[in-house]
Amino acid sequence: MTELLIKGANLVTGGDDHENALPAGGQDILIKDGRYADPADASAEATVIDADGLTALPGLIDLHTHLREPGREDAETVESGTRAAARGGFAAVLAMANTNPVTDTAEAAAHIRTLGEKAGFAQVFPIGAVSKGLAGEELAELGLMARIGVRMFSDDGNCVSDSRLMRRALEYVRAFDGVIAQHSQDPRLAGRDACCHEGEISGRLGLAGWPSAAEATVIARDAELAKLTNSRLHVCHVSTAESVDVLAWAKKRGIKITAEVTPHHLLLTTAEVQGYDPTYKVNPPLRPDEDVAALRAALADGTIDAVATDHAPHARHDKEHAFADAAFGMLGLETALGVVIETMLNTGALDWDTLVQRTSIAPGRIAGLGSDLGMRPAYGQTAQLTVIDPQRRNPVDAAESFSLSRNNPWHGRELPDPVMITIADGRISYQRQ
Ligand SMILES: NC(=O)N[C@@H](CC(=O)O)C(=O)O
Ligand SMILES: [Zn+2]
Ligand SMILES: [Zn+2]
Q1: Under 8 Å between Cβ of 339 and 347
Q2: 14, 131, 232, 325: which sits with the fewest CB atoms below 10 Å from its CB?
Q3: Number of domains in the chain
């Protein structure tokens, strides 16, 4: 029997009260053998944590993490990535399929889940590839992956650009309430050498860019396919105001569409690219101020359902090149909550309950986790909890990251640094020293 008594935390629940729910607000939280229990039953043996002045949130869930194992263990492993996730307050992560080999079979997916269990820092839910080898030609073994519990499928890194393949994938996953997560970017509109947002700055810097239309047009097409198939579509890393308009239009029509935004698209802009620092090279690219404002408004009003990190670690020798030749992607797990607090809470755009909706409840629902994750904490449930000090701030130091990679766009910037304790699957997975 292990007992953990968190004393005096202010619990934010994200709403939806129900019979067994822990009450919102200040209280002692007892976790007995990994499950929430009545604090009145705490024994003298309980380990006590003083959480006076701290806030507790249902454990964060990241819909979009690149863990790089198997294949690029020099950039990240399941262990290093989930350790970073725990430090960021995440109790669970969805692991993208663009590994090497690609996660396009049930065996490959099961292997990644097992690696997550062995590491023990955060629950790892593998995302299955939509197409074999992410080649965009033949459907992967969606049914076999579904049989071992995979509910989310994505060719992320690549867009499923063939309309017929996308239609068939959506039709296929409907049977088990699965979801296709799309990297919405028309490869025919984004040239091979495209590396930033197409606009005034790309012209001045002499870099090839993507027009916003490359994103919005794919979202519009996929929304029609989701309607046609009556199936669930999730849009990865939405980055433009035009895309937000398309999402609002699709939602108004009752289409089963959800969307995520990354922390970096909520704060960084095209202006960062002017120093040609490849740390800021990411896909989709950083966009102008107007897009950032539209993304914040959409996350506040629910047009965008969730925050997802798109944590994309890269080894030095893949990132340290001329801007046009460097790999796409940036780290995100450890700083995500700080950026969301800075951009959405500290600006008054979101309240705490809605923040919990966007970082835990909605991600759990979208991914179809169907476990104790992404729920309002309740007695008897396995504890998934993030205890934070919302006032704590610090300059980010890339060298201190638990990630194996150093492509950290926040290095040197002062941000909220709130996470004190993460409890994943009933156990402490991170505790600030
Ligand atoms: N976001 C990125 O810039 N890169 C991702 C792929 C992706 O999310 O599209 C990666 O795997 O490195
Ligand atoms: Zn992507
Ligand atoms: Zn990604």
Answers
A1: no
A2: 325
A3: 2
Whichever domain contains 140, its CATH number is 3.20.20.140
pLDDT tens by residue, 72-129: 999 999 999 999 999 999 999 999 999 999 999 999 999 999 999 999 999 999 999 9
Q: Which atom of ligand 1 is nearest to the CA of 96?
A: 11
Q: Is position 177 annotated as part of the catalytic site?
A: no
ipTM over 0.90: yes
Residue in this structure with the two tokens 């890194």, named with its chain if needed? 157
CATH at residue 49 = 2.30.40.10
Q: What angle do CA 246, 251, 254 make, to 5 degrees?
A: 135
Residues 125 and 268 occupy one common structural domain = yes
Q: How many CB atoms lie within 10 A of CB 73?
A: 15
Domain that holds residue 260: 59-367
Radius of gyration of the chain (CA): 21
Beta strands 385-388 and 55-58 are: antiparallel
Q: pTM to 2 decimals?
A: 0.98
Examine the domain organization and report whether 149 and 34 are in the same domain. Answer: no
Reported as a single tens digit per residue, the pLDDT across 393-405 is: 999 999 999 999 9
Ligand 1 atom nearest residue 64's Cα? 8
